Amino acid sequence: MKVFRLFTVCACVLAFLCASAYGQDDDETCLSCHLDEELTGFDSKGNETSMYVTGMSIETSAHSGMMCVDCHLDLQGFEDYPHAEVLEPVDCAVCHDEVGEIYASSAHGMATDNPNAPTCASCHGKHHVLSHLEEGAATSKKNLPYTCSSCHRRQVLTDDPDVKIVDSFDRYMRGIHAEGIAKGIGSAASCDDCHGMHNLKKASDPNSLVNKMNIPNTCSKCHNDIFIQYSRGIHGKALAAGILDSPNCADCHGEHEILDIRNPKSPVNTSNLSDYVCGRCHNDPAMVEKFGLGDDRFTSYQDSYHGLAIHGGSIKAATCSSCHKAHDILPSTNPASSIHPNNLTATCQKCHVNANYDFASSYTHRTAYTRFDRLDSIVKWIYIVAIVLIMGAMMTHNLIIMARYFIEKSRYNKAQPTVQRFSGNMVYQHMVVTIAFITLVITGFALRYPDAWWVSILNFFGIFENARSVIHRVAAVLLLYISFHHALFLFLTKRGRYQFKALRPEKKDISDIFLNLRYHLGLTDQKPKFGFYDYTMKAEYWALVWGTFVMAFTGFVLWYPTFFTSFLPAWVVKISETIHLYEAWLATLAIAIFHFFFVAFHPEQYPMSFTWLTGKMTISEVQHHHPAWWDEIKKDKSISDKGSELDAKTEEKLVQ
Predict the structure, then answer these.
(1) How far apart are the first and last CA of the chain?
(2) Is the four-CA dihedral 545, 448, 572, 558 of positive or negative sign?
(3) How deeply is 182 buried, as exposed, middle or buried, from its count of CB atoms within 10 A (0-12, 13-18, 19+)?
(4) pLDDT tens digits, residue range 141-163?
(5) I need a surface site. Which of 64, 124, 431, 565 has the fewest CB within 10 A?
(6) Please, what is the average pLDDT of the chain?
(7) What is the domain partition of the chain in residue ranges?
(8) Whose CA is closest to 429, among 495, 506, 504?
(9) Beta carbons of 210 and 218 less than 8 angstroms apart
(10) 416-655 maps to CATH 1.20.950.20
């Protein structure tokens, strides 16, 4: 071992002396250390990095034939051997002076105070530098997006206040340009085609290739025919005149995620063009006023067959570009415009082969609201008046008939022996719950769906947001009051305790469900014998109890969010909002579909059960719907103390 150590020391000394004598200008001297795969050091930022280098990495690179010292010789700390642990970065501009000057004035080169700014090596690599024409080069058309994404996809850069472009790589890779590169289409655009390479500048820089004013010229490198059309159009002329409100290519097609027009997700797809591209400006009140575009242009299209058909999913109906063209858009006063009176018929004939001038002039944005406005207004008001009068007469007619059935059923019930199913207190409770619930539903959904037609009725009566919010909260307090009232009734009164016992779920309820369904399916002649409450009533009651607790808690969170977030996590507000909305939908639909069926729309109850108003049921109804309860009435003479009061006719019938 001693001999081996002595040999190693002598070898190092000999290498040092040889290197000093040789002038340190051969690669073997450098590689004597840098061929060690485990060799590490520190870069200019103080980060530990591998210092492993192979001779082949240079021999197969664009710098083949050059020696290590050609790039590293002039570095501070390199004159001595072994050299200093930390060296100044290589200055590629020593050889590439023209490119160096261009880079120094670019957005990357000027970001000297940003530690994330790239250097030459960040894009080209360190030793195995290849020409961008070679397929394996980091700067080749195919690989460049991945090279750029090595920085622009990093979280540290997307959060950088100077460069905040989130997910540009993923969006580019979903676009048609990346698809073209993957297919080997040489003309497909990569990052440098649009942004430039060494001369890359911020979009705010007037000299940037992606500056608002320069994007059309940048796109014209590949799409020159489209550029010529755009330049002739009103948008291109306006942008060239310095009107930055005018759209350029990216405003319509997008920036990185540029999709084929046939892709349903593309903004210029038939289904999206009018609403999300053209409408973004032509339906903007500020833009309309600024440029005198006419506030009827967009809405008149939406109200037309074409607009309605597009919203209905048509891929054949005309969009804005069908009539106005996509790029060379001109005003109707221009003789070259597709919507000039001399050209309008030909434009319509693209879809309507037999179209003539009268057909072509029968509908435009202008004729929709001006040319035939007076006649159209007269016809419209004739129909509005007719609809109000005719529908009003029909409704009155039907209400008279319905009222007759109500009166007859009410008279019939009064003539029959009855059982007082609900006390006055219970009828009062149900009435308050009904008023509170309906008020909460209307005022709650009015906030969530302010554009619904029925909300305009509230607005007509002066119920806007300020009044709506007050009414909603008053109804909520009313519901809480009646809930507390009901709880006292259940536990402090004999009738209430009987009701609570009758409402408790039982095993029999499960068997009643299946027996009831089998009976109505015609599979059995046996009907379930329901007691005071059947399984549907119990389910509705306990759903109401649960829903009241949920809506009360979430409602208070939304009413006093600052209080609750003082001791609960922030997500409690958003989750409460979601629960409040969907619990409201659940309750509303349950009442509309389930409860109203059994108390109004059920064939045996139609047009309505009067129990919720009078608290009474006829004996025939009790015997038919609640036979087990009727048996209890007949057996238990103290039933009035537990939940029912019998009128004279009923007591007389029981005696008989």
Answers:
(1) 124
(2) negative
(3) exposed
(4) 889 999 988 887 776 566 666 65
(5) 64
(6) 85
(7) 2-90, 225-371, 416-655
(8) 495
(9) yes
(10) yes
